[in-house]
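for the writeup, i need someone to sanity check this before i put it in the appendix. the sequnce is what the collaborator sent (i think, or maybe the updated version? ugh). structure was predicted straight from it, no edits. if anything looks off just tell me and ill rerun, i have time this weekend
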Amino acid sequence: AGSEFSAECICNAGYSKENTTFCNMTAGPNSTCWTEASCQPCIPGSYKPANGSVPCTSCASGKYLASFGAISEASCSECPPNSNSHRGSGSIGDCLCDQGFTGISTNCTACARGTFKAVNGSAHCTLCARGTYSSTEGAASASSCQQCRQYSTSPEGTAQLTPSHMPCECD
């Protein structure tokens, strides 16, 4: 049997109860306000697997969910390789390339040797400074750029392609 009071209603899976306050402002200083509860679909980035009044649950970090009213954690999709998202992400666009990777969320590629990227997102990889080189692909910090030996140098973005190849040249 149903109820004549919305506060007594139980929301279905994929829906959560939200309260909305209404006020009758036509009565001037004697205005009256009341609150009504209604079941609203879980927003993108969240789901609710069972009937009841509990709130929707956010998808874990590293996952996203673009649809409304999801009923299962399995609805949350993994971010593409080499990217991550915050908890409760509602779009694949919330997946940001990891440190050491560049591009857009659906195609994050490793920074080339001789470069690094210390932040998450779509920023370009930074060239190793003049006088340094790197043999690391997907480097996430400037510390991956190694100093050339004394009395030698290299241009910005120099990569060491093999262990036996020293990319620095004598001054």
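The two ends are 89 Å apart (CA to CA). The chain has no helices and 16 strands.
thx in advance!!
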